[in-house]
Specification:
alpha/beta, Rossmann fold, 3 domains, 5-stranded parallel beta sheet, 28 strands
């Protein structure tokens, strides 16, 4: 029976109440503080949510009000969201690294009345904006370090709200239970703002039904068990984190674990050894880069061992994908590789206990995908959208494939329209965009089908294949198909390339702007005695251009000739979300980038050898600066080969 069939389990706070009653002393959520993991069981989790909800009620928070959380992943920020939902309010998580203009837009559009901030940094940001936020009444801080001298009347500590809630509960013992019981499955639980690849973010209204249905469907087709550890490190404003750290954790009694800080995630991941993991492509690409760099830095013997067993693993993975049996020598080699390479690598990555891992949020390059699969990591693809409560389709263990995203999850119907756009219907589909009825009508059909904006098709096995964003799929001048993400993922397999943006629609050839990986290219330069002072200086070195040219040539070798990159340019700065070139989830804002770098594109196709580029840089407080420089354009085959140091 579905959780949604019972009035006692049809909202997220009611699931928390169920867990506190059925498994009061089982671990529910942890956080690492000063090097020590601290655990809240389900009973303690519920008690804090109850007292904070009562505290919010004492502050005038009522049904329909909005509460925003901003900061790194912290138990108290998840608890605050559930507390608002108990009272019939909505949570609005925002990105902790958002610049002032982004925060003002979202908080004003959502009509946020309460902000729960992690620490002094986020409090300062909120206080600096309060005059531009007419709906804001309270700022609640969780970490009081550095805030002892603040006396703004809008400020309250998390502890003081809990104390007020305990007193409120004593005065009205039945209030919490009454408010909890008022909740209904179709109440809006969260406004999740989209990443905004084509303009301002849109607020997708998700109901309890949406989130619980998505969680149940995912649990049904995956090997999840109560008590499984889950690392909650993804941005809280990304719907994928809410789907797992709230929806999945409450529905399946998983344990959410909050790392000490963003900088300690890799260390905490290895220490925790979670049973499952979800990461966007950028995380997997970073992990791959780390392993490639470590392999390259090893002693000659270790490097040869690593390269040999890596090659063996990838060949065997391709044979498995093709359904071919492995020979005796290959099986013995894999057994030896497990002891010497594969097992130690999984341990280094913190994935020794992971029964399954997923990549989602954007396409992951096939080469990167196969690397992890070949090393014994059960990496699979998941496909979703904010408007679909993060989850639409996923792969089973037996059907892992870098070229598909698997089958639609239970009770989710997917079809492809006449233009090749993916559409779906199901209980996970959102209720519409907040205060944007016209945009909602453009996205939701009258009969309930969600238009995802993604181009795709079903293969012969019934697996869903996503090509690219429908608006980004185009054709070259000769009519050949052009899917930029596919080419970009090939390029980003290189540890030296952090970001790539390909152009080619209605053009005679494919060209690319490349942002180097500062760390790996910097290490490469230092080993060769190549001095540099900054990202700009490093990216302008002819030797670096030659290195990247060779990496692009490697990627081109696996592409049809018409889709191969013919010209490239090395950017003198990284693509940044603060400069509106990327979303907060690291997706390229193609339309904006094409307009911003129009001169570069003209230079590519006009045969120029260099182009003058003026780049605007946005600081966190909203101040702007500009950077102008002459950047060389390189033709493949016309860069000097890399010269090794003597």
């Amino acid at each position: 029976m579905s959780l949604l069939d019972s009035a006692k389990t049809d909202t997220l706070p009611k699931l928390l109440q169920r867990n506190a009653e059925e498994s009061p002393h089982a671990p529910a959520i942890r956080e690492k503080t000063r090097g020590v993991w601290q655990t809240f069981d389900w009973l303690a989790y519920r008690d804090i949510v109850r007292d904070f909800a009562l505290g919010l009620a004492s502050m005038g928070f009522k049904r329909g009000d909005k509460l925003s959380v901003v900061g790194d992943n912290r138990p108290q920020l998840y608890m605050a969201q559930l507390s608002a939902q108990v009272l019939g309010g909505m949570s609005v998580p925002v990105y902790q690294d958002s610049i002032a203009s982004e925060l003002v837009y979202v908080l004003n559009h959502a009509e946020t009345s309460v902000i729960v901030a992690e620490d002094q940094e986020q409090v300062d940001k909120a206080l600096s904006l309060k005059d531009r936020l007419p709906n804001l009444r309270w700022i609640v801080f969780e970490d009081k370090r550095g805030l002892w001298s603040y006396d703004d009347p809008m400020l309250k500590s998390f502890e003081s709200v809990l104390e007020a809630g305990a007193a409120y509960g004593k005065a009205d013992p039945g209030f919490y239970g009454e408010e909890l019981a008022k909740g209904r499955a179709d109440d809006i639980v969260m406004i999740a703002y989209t990443s905004g690849t084509t303009g301002n973010p849109k607020g997708a209204m998700l109901s309890h039904r949406n989130m619980i249905a998505a969680a149940e469907a995912f649990i049904e087709v995956n090997d999840t068990k109560p008590g499984d550890n889950w690392l909650s490190y993804l941005p809280m404003a990304w719907v994928g984190d809410a789907a797992f750290s709230l929806g999945m954790a409450l529905a399946g009694k998983l344990v959410a674990n909050c790392p000490e800080s963003p900088e300690s995630v890799q260390r905490d991941l290895r220490e925790l050894g979670p049973n499952s993991m979800l990461a966007p492509p950028r995380i997997w690409e970073n992990m791959l880069t780390v392993m490639q760099v470590k392999g390259g830095d090893a002693t000659p013997i270790k490097r040869r061992v690593f390269d040999y067993f890596r090659g063996l693993a990838e060949r065997c993975e391709l044979k498995r994908t093709d359904g071919k049996p492995l020979g005796l020598g290959e099986r013995l080699g894999l057994m030896m590789g497990e002891f010497l390479v594969y097992g130690p690598v999984r341990d280094q990555l913190g994935l020794r206990n992971a029964r399954w891992c997923y990549t989602g949020g954007a396409p992951l390059g096939p080469d990167t995908y196969r690397f992890f699969r070949s090393f014994g990591i059960n990496l699979k693809q998941v496909y979703g959208a904010t408007e679909a409560s993060a989850l639409i389709a996923c792969q089973s263990d037996a059907e892992a494939n870098p070229n598909t995203v698997g089958r639609p999850m239970p009770r989710i119907e997917v079809k492809i329209d006449d233009r090749g756009e993916v559409m779906l219907k199901g209980p996970n589909v959102f209720r519409g965009y907040f205060k944007q009825d016209e945009v909602t009508r453009e996205t939701l059909t009258n009969d309930g089908w969600l238009m995802t904006g993604d181009a795709g098709f079903f293969d012969k096995q019934g697996q869903l294949v996503i090509i690219d964003r429908a608006k980004d799929v185009g054709k070259l001048a000769d009519g050949s198909a052009f899917a930029p993400q596919f080419i970009e993922n090939k390029l980003k397999f290189s540890p030296y390339i952090r970001e790539a943006v390909a152009f080619g629609h209605e053009r005679p050839m494919v060209v690319a702007m490349i942002a180097i990986d500062m760390q790996t290219v910097g290490t490469w330069a230092e080993k060769r005695g190549l001095p540099y002072t900054s990202f700009m200086d490093l990216s302008r070195k002819p030797e670096v251009a030659a290195l990247i040219g060779e990496e692009i040539a490697k990627a081109n070798a696996s592409l049809p000739d018409v889709q191969q990159v013919k010209r490239f340019l090395l950017l003198n700065k990284e693509l940044e979300a603060d400069d509106a070139e990327m979303t907060r989830t690291r997706k390229v804002r193609r339309r904006f980038v094409a307009e911003k770098y129009a001169r570069v594109i003209d230079g590519f196709y006009g045969g120029a050898n260099s182009v003058q580029v003026t780049m605007e840089i946005t600081f966190e407080d909203g101040r702007k600066s500009s950077l102008t420089s002459e950047i060389a354009i390189h033709d493949l085959g016309h860069v000097e080969p890399v010269r090794e140091a003597a």
